[in-house]
């Protein structure tokens, strides 16, 4: 029989752990149900709600936060200049997914830029004071010291894409390797043979994986990758322009370009048009992200669609689990997860 206002095993108010034990789930799942997360099955939600009712558990947000040294705040940290954040659809789509997942919780979201040394030092001091419960790191470079700082401070963190294959932090990413293969295989199927690749910044692991996918797709088609058809970019429109100009100078007969982002593809398109190259008649063009830029280009851009909003939602989901399940660093280290979401090719007139 349900007992209203029941006391826990310790004789005090029922605890989150006791609710989890009664419902047969983990503490993180109970936290998600209490915070209204949609990422819980109906059956699990019903079991947790029944346990809450039976034990008389009453969450007290303010008291819970104070007792547990919690702030009920999450920081979304972008180690890039503000100008890049506001000019690239990737970041706004990520923020949209993060915000949607947090909307039904009591957590506050702080947006923090750390693109300069001064901003990084200030952020390090802020994090050392434990003013947030967890951190989302977006656009992480291989030499970025922030992930290691978060690990040292034992602050729960999730990053958008691993720094390397040996990543120790929980990460959420799209299948960069598979997406690049889709792009190149599509171009090959259209009869293109001199396929250039404008890469993203190669200190970003996702950009490295796109280069790997590009090379492997060519190799599987019996073509060795021509290194003179690969030009580094930096995910910016100006970077796309510079890379495209360099490629045309070295390989004027190229007949296709796979750009590592839609923004770079837009820059490449300008250079191709200035050089009198028709798209797709003379040169086929494929981007990456399937952002609004791709749909509004002329001709509309074929692009690899990565589920950026879903990545943001999954990052929040995993971070809330880590925040709710604060264990010693060694134990948490054993539970790091690398989530990889599928990509798909959105075919349009540019290819």
Automatic annotation (TrEMBL):
Please list the residue ranges annotated as the HTH lacI-type domain. 14-68
Protein known as: HTH-type transcriptional regulator CelR
Give the source species.
Answer: Streptomyces davaonensis (strain DSM 101723 / JCM 4913 / KCC S-0913 / 768)
Check the record and name the SMART domains matching this protein: HTH_LACI
**Per the record, a Pfam family?**
Peripla_BP_3
InterPro entries per the UniProt record, alphabetical: HTH_LacI (IPR000843), LacI/GalR-like_sensor (IPR046335), Lambda_DNA-bd_dom_sf (IPR010982), Peripla_BP_I (IPR028082)
PANTHER family with a match to the protein in the record: HTH-TYPE TRANSCRIPTIONAL REGULATOR GALS, LACI-RELATED TRANSCRIPTIONAL REPRESSOR
Keywords from UniProt, A to Z, are: DNA-binding, Transcription, Transcription regulation
Q: Which GO terms describe its molecular function?
A: DNA-binding transcription factor activity; transcription cis-regulatory region binding
Matching Gene3D superfamilies, A to Z? 3.40.50.2300, lambda repressor-like DNA-binding domains
